[in-house]
Amino acid sequence: AEEMMIRSEKMSVAGQLAAGIAHEIRNPLTSIKGFLQLLQAGVNREDEYYKIMVDEIEKMETITSELLFVSKPMTDHKELENLPELIDDVVTLLNPQAGLKNIEILWKQESNQNVKCDRSQIKQVFINILKNAIEAMEKPGYIKVNDYIHHNEILIDIIDEGPGIPEEVIHKLGEPFFTTKQNGTGPGLMITRQILERHGGRLEILQNEDTGSTFRVILPKP
Ligand code: ADP
Ligand code: MG
After folding, report:
1. CA of 131 to the centre of ligand 2 (A)
2. What start-end ranges are recorded for coiled-coil regions in this protein (predicted)?
3. ipTM
4. pLDDT band at 1 (very low <50, low <70, confident <90, very high)
């Protein structure tokens, strides 16, 4: 694993991305091919095989649509947007998913800030982080979302009660397609970082003292 990490550090981002895509698409393709061959040979477990193949195709669909997003040219549709309203929208969107796991999203709005941003991109940032927070939590509990101003920056903390992130995983979070989840696809955090960079902002990941992690989104004040 250590060898892998050193190698990936040397590889360019484009190279990593290409290697990741090749890997992520080859696996489902191999699996689909195998099941097609079984069907061709006349095995009688059709329903089961079709289901697996559809699942594999869906994986490839997710990967390709996420890739299209990353490869989009840097469009500049930045407008002054009200941040609390934007976060309200995201929390409303993810509340049902949180509810299924008895997780409550506590969104405490402090500053009524506007940000100069591409609304859908910044929404994507909060969707990615909140989804990860929900997925990380194994027990019912709370995800806190707080915003505040520090100097000339707007900080939004998303604090979960999951297991936190192991040291060796933290270093890999920027790599495209890095995931520890069985059904994970990986580019979520890379896209998140990229969007924030495009907005003159950044992402900080902190370990909570008790349990869980804090994802801190930092955006410049307009
Ligand atoms: P995916 O969600 O598809 O795995 P991401 O890029 O969104 O891809 O996240 C990459 C990895 O970062 C996850 O697989 C997980 O190991 C780790 N991670 C992200 N958010 C959290 C969190 N809130 N708590 C613990 N681990 C996390
Ligand atoms: Mg994710």
Report:
1. 6
2. none
3. 0.98
4. very low
Q: Which of 132, 185, 215 to mutate to test the pocket of ligand 1 (most atoms within 8 A of CB)?
A: 132
| CA 42 to centroid of ligand 2, rounded, Å | 39
DSSP 185-215: --HHHHHHHHHHHHTT-EEEEEE-SSSSEEE
The residue among 84, 167, 96, 163 whose CA lies nearest residue 126 is: 84
Q: How far apart are CA 111 and CA 131, in angstroms?
A: 23
Determine the 3-state secondary structure of 143 from DSSP.
Answer: strand
| 184, HSE (Cβ side, Cα atoms, 13 Å) | 17
C-beta 20 within 6 A of ligand 1:
no
d(CA 65, CA 62): 5
213 lines ligand 1 (CB under 6 A): yes
Return d(Cα 50, Cα 64) in angstroms, integer. 21
Q: How far is the CA of 169 from the centre of ligand 2 (A)?
A: 14
Please report the pLDDT score of residue 76 as a whole number: 66
pLDDT digits (tens, 9 = 90+) for 18-59: 777 777 788 899 999 999 999 999 887 888 999 999 999 988
Q: Which ligand is nearest to the CA of 180?
A: 1
The CA R_g of the chain, rounded to the nearest whole Å, is 20
pTM of the model: 0.75
Strand order in the sheet with 141-150: 103-108, 141-150, 153-159, 213-220, 202-207
